[in-house]
Design a protein that fits this description.
109 residues, mainly alpha, 2 helices, 90% helix, rod-shaped
């Protein structure tokens, strides 16, 4: 009975981790779109007829936002990698449990 609980627990953990990874992928896609929008804004600003002091101030703001997006993407990516490692550990433990279970079963001739 404890073995069934362990298997169900592992399945639940795998499902949770997969969902978390998918959420992080979606967040990375959103951050990628934000970065593209900021880059486009920077290009538009560069070709604008605004005063150079105003352009510099706006470009600094865009660059700050780009750094913020980059830092968020790094954090999300790092978390996703940790989740992948956790998923791999659960899968490896399942393999070990199956091998142990199969090795203790009597073999039929």
């Amino acid at each position: 009975m404890a073995e069934n609980f362990s298997i169900e627990h592992s399945r639940t953990k795998i499902t949770e981790v997969k969902k978390t990874i998918e959420d992080k992928k979606q967040k990375l896609d959103e951050l990628k779109q934000q970065k593209k929008s900021l880059m486009d804004a920077g290009l538009a600003l560069d070709s604008s007829n605004l005063d150079s002091a105003v352009q510099a101030t706006l470009m600094e703001s865009i660059n700050d936002s780009l750094r913020d997006v980059e830092n968020k993407a790094y954090d999300v990516s790092k978390d996703a990698n940790q989740n992948l490692q956790s998923l791999e550990q659960v899968r490896q433990s399942q393999i070990v449990k199956r091998r142990r279970r199969n090795s203790t079963k009597p073999r039929s001739c």
